[in-house]
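Honest question from a wet-lab person: if I give you the sequences of every part of a complex, can you actually get the arrangement of the whole thing, not just the pieces? Trying it with mine:
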Amino acid sequence: EVQLVESGGGLVQPGGSLRLSCAASGFIFSSYGMNWVRQAPGKGLEWVSYIRSSSNTIYYADSVKGRFTISRDNANNLLYLQMNSLRDEDTAVYYCARDGIDRVPFDHWGQGTLVTISS
Amino acid sequence: DIQMTQSPSSVSASVGDRVTITCRASQGISSWLAWYQQKAGKAPKLLIHTASTLQSGVPSRISGSGSGTDFTLTISSLQPEDAATYYCQQADSFPYTFGQGTKLEIK
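Yes, you can. This is the full assembly:
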C-alpha cells in the first residue's frame, strides 16, 4: 500500500524557516516524481513544487521561487521542502503528492502537515 | 500560466440526481486534465486523469469528458458520500494549476 507521511509543520514567525519531510513507503520511491501542494485555511489547492525521480528536474511556483527548496533522498525514501523567509501567506496545510506513471498527476497524497506563520 | 475556471462554485442536489461540473482552461491543454475530490479535513483524492480515465477504485457513476479547453465532470446518480469539494487541475505544463473548486452539497 502506498503511504506518504508528512512531518515538520508548526508555528513559525514571519521571516523564519522550516523544513518539511515526507516519508514514502509501499512503492519504489526512486522511480516517481514528487510534488508539494498546499492549501491555505478555507481556500483551494495550490501546487508548490515538483522534483523528478532523479532530482535532475525541479520546478517551483512563482509564489515560492527563491525561498523554498525541494529535495529528495532516494536511499531513505524521503522528500523534503526547505522553506525560508516565510510569510503570513505561506500559512497552509502542506501535502506531498506522488506523480503517477505516464503523466498521471497526484495519484497518492499524504495526510498533510500544517504550517502556521504568525508573530 | 494556464488559468483554470470551474463552475459552478457550489451546487446543491438530491440523492439520485445527475450533477455536472465544468472546467475551462485559459489555453488548450489537450486531454491533460485531472479531477479530484476532497472531503472535509481530508487530503484530495484523484478521481479522473487524462480528462476521462477513471482512477482505480472510483465508482463508475463518476465520469469525465472534454479536450482542449472545455471539460466536464459528471456524477450520474448522486450518493450521500459524494458530498465534497471537487477540483480540476491541468497537467499540461508547469506550473500546474487548479480550478477554484466546486462545493457539492446533498439536499
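Two things worth pointing out. Chain B touches chain A through 23 residues (CB under 8 Å). The mean pLDDT of chain B is 97.
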